[in-house]
Amino acid sequence: MEAPERVVVRFEGDGAGEGPLSWGQTENWLAIKRQQTWLPLGGVQPLPPDSTVEGVADELRYLLSRFPSLRTRLRLAGGERPTQVVAGVGEITLEVIDAGDRDPAAVAGEVHDRYRDTALDFTAEWPIRMAAIRGGGRLTHLVALLSHFALDATGAAAMLAGVSSRDTSPLTGQQPLDQAGWQRSPAGRRHNAAALRYWEGILRALGPRRFPEPVARTSPRFWQGEFTSPDLHRAVRAIVRRTGVDSSTVLTTLYVAAIAQVSGIDPVAIRPTVSNRFRAGLSDVVCTLVQAGLLMVHVAGTPFDELLERTGRLTLSAYKYAYFDPDDVGELRERVAVDIGCFYNDRRGPNREQDLDAAEPDPAPAGLRWLSKQDAPAVEPLFVHVDDAPGTMRLTIQLDADYLSPTDGERVLRAMESIAVANAAPRP
User: Fold this and answer.
1) What is the rounded average pLDDT of the residues 195-213?
2) HSE of 422 in the Cβ direction (CA atoms, 13 Å)?
């Protein structure tokens, strides 16, 4: 493999300026510092046979010219929060890598891993890395990684829609600098104060831990696994049909019930990730808006259908108050000294309800596979994600074994499955 050709791509766009971080940016910055990773999103994709270096460079130019979040760097000052600096003009490098006599897909994978594993200097680099791989005299693959600091899943979808249409009309919606301005306005501070009252009311009602302390430490410390369950898929579909409740609420309720069963601690408190895209002016902005809210549910002795109704109702408040200043919530958590490390993220696509009813292919092998065990980078104490998977239910689990043993992590997933199956049948 030859040394990369480095193509300089110049760009120019509207919205230049600087100011404090938005709440969504702050939430991601804290995760970046805590987990010691630049939170890269993206991957490798094949390129059409007629792709050219000029075409890929033009796409990269469009991305940075169009979306202010992709031409945002940070200015750090001591221990204070960074300042975001949105450039009006600049340049970025596109790498073009010739695979030589090697498999271009394998080379693309290596470039992806190099980009992923190399720290990003947010003060000097743009939050996007891109390379084109050449094999057999033509471009074959595109490698593109972007930091979660710049966009979330909905922002990524809006970005891809813009790339597809090459829309050049004025952007609509609040960009991150505008968001930060509103958040510091009287209206923003009133909303934040209401969110803090909501959070404090829950935190002061909780015990200090969400799970009993593990009896022994496990090494490596941080584990990630994938749980595949056709039984859970079928049971969730049956509960949705029986109750008329959407599958997101059903799965949240199953997670809450499983936490209660495994921990023996009630009430249960979890942190569901919330897109915040339902707020005015934020539906299709290319930025990061996701924040982890706070949901508390009393579970003990509650029949499942009643728990389903209760969780759905309480989730509305959790979503309403999942838009907050992370620094203020952090200070509150330190004062109250309560651990709320149970995170939950339904990251299925917008067609999740239709997909639930889709014809089932041959199901993937059921069960839990531990994919990685490591001592760095760190992960949250417990994080369960729900992912798109045709004809089955796929849950990704990340855990800190100093907080929750891998055995108990698996018990949470198995409990979600067994509780769903037990409540799938029609009521007499």
Assistant:
1) 94
2) 12
With vertex at residue 359, the alpha carbon angle to CA 353 and CA 362, rounded to the nearest 5 degrees, is: 120
**Residue 335 and residue 254 in one domain:** yes
d(CA 216, CA 278): 43
**pLDDT of the residue at 383:** 97
Classify residue 199: in a domain, yes or no: no
Helix (H) or strand (E) holding 312: helix 304-320
Amino acid symbol at 61: R
Q: What is the signed CA dihedral for 81, 85, 86, 88, rounded to 10 degrees?
A: 180
* Residue among 108, 133, 93, 134 nearest 6 (CA): 93
- For residues 103 and 28, membership in a common domain is answered with yes
pLDDT classification of 358: cutoffs 50, 70, 90:
confident
What is the domain extent for residue 258?
204-422
Give pLDDT, residue 4.
Answer: 87
Separation between Cα atoms, residue 129 and residue 125, nearest integer Å: 9
Alpha-carbon distance 370 to 227, whole Å?
9
Judged against a pLDDT cut of 80, whether residue 355 lies above it is answered with: no
Query: Could you tell me the two tokens for 268?
Result: 């249960």
Q: State whether 109 and 150 are in the same domain.
A: yes
Q: Give pLDDT tens digits for 58-115.
A: 999 999 999 999 999 999 987 778 999 999 999 999 999 999 999 999 999 999 999 9
Q: Report yes or no: 92 and 27 within 8 Å, Cβ to Cβ.
A: no
Count of beta carbons in the 10 Å neighbourhood of residue 406? 17
Are residues 42 and 155 part of one domain? yes
- Rounded CA-CA distance 415/266 in Å is 16
Which letter does DSSP use for residue 301 in this model?
Answer: T
What pLDDT score was predicted for residue 235? 95
Q: What is the CATH number of the domain that holds 56?
A: 3.30.559.10
Specify if 192 maps to a domain: no
Q: Do 161 and 237 reside in the same domain of the chain?
A: no
